[in-house]
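Protocol step 4 of 5: obtain the predicted structure for the target chain.
Materials: sequence only (see below). No template structures provided, no constraints applied. The aim of this step is simply to have a reference model before the mutagenesis design in step 5. Sequence pasted as it appears in the construct record:
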Amino acid sequence: MSPSPQPSGSVRSAAAVNEQIRELWLRAGGTLSAEERMEYEHLVMEWAAAVRGGVGEAA
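Step 4 output (structure tokens):
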């Protein structure tokens, strides 16, 4: 089973999420299974939210 996703109210930095995305790709050997693809999509959405949050904080 994949690592537990962060609760939706939890905030992680874009860098932390990016690192988890990199680890997923390394672990998968460059080809994602259906379960890994779902995890990847979740992480990308979390990363995008973190980036948007960071931009809002910087403004």
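Step 4 remarks: Helices lie at 14-28, 34-58. The chain has two helices and no strands.
Proceed to step 5.
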